[in-house]
Amino acid sequence: MAFMRYRALPQGELMVEEFRAWLAQFDADRDGRISREELQHALRSLNVWFAWWKARGGVRAADANRDGHVAGDDEVARLFAFAQSHLHVKITQLGYY
């Protein structure tokens, strides 16, 4: 089993692009969508307690079409909102987001 090294989430206030780039590194199958398992892996990299629970909540909050993945600008924007309110991540609102 190979271990991958992930970039840490930058400290302080984040730009939307930084959050998106950080999250993209956990897209294991490179399909451009984030699954619950991939989000759980991302949260575990931050040492978040109950990562599976919070990943499930994040996907439920963000997944507008209920396909089990976070994809597209609208769903990613919903995930940003979830991260700000439930994970206490500070993200600068720019442009569309």
From TrEMBL:
GO terms for molecular function: calcium ion binding. SUPFAM superfamilies: EF-hand. Residues 14-49 form the EF-hand domain. InterPro entries: Centrin_CML-like, EF-hand-dom_pair, EF_Hand_1_Ca_BS, EF_hand_dom. Pfam families: EF-hand_5 (PF13202). PANTHER family: CALCIUM BINDING PROTEIN (PTHR23050). This is EF-hand domain-containing protein. It comes from Digitaria exilis.
